User: What shape does this take?
Amino acid sequence: MAGGQERILRQRIKSVQATRKITKAMELIAASQIARSQARIIANRPYRLGMRRIVVEAALGDTAAAKKLLTLPENVTTALVLVITGDRGSRAPTTPRSCARASDW
Assistant: This one.
């Protein structure tokens, strides 16, 4: 094998190894983010159950008002779109995308 080809192969091997290291690090970061998200979901469970209890108790207390709030109206003339976004800085493109989609409505 000529010297030039050998050098090119060594560079390619180093490049592939570096790419593997980067990919492994990205996988570890993604796994930790998933674990944190699942922990947040579990931590929010009491809040969700409490909100459900409040809605059920309110519905049982005044069934006419509950029917008005919890059923679809027969004819819809206007709609309100409320966009709630997170403040994640410049890393997350979801905020501008959500606002753009909401303005399309």
Observations:
- The helical segments are 3-61, 63-70, 94-104.
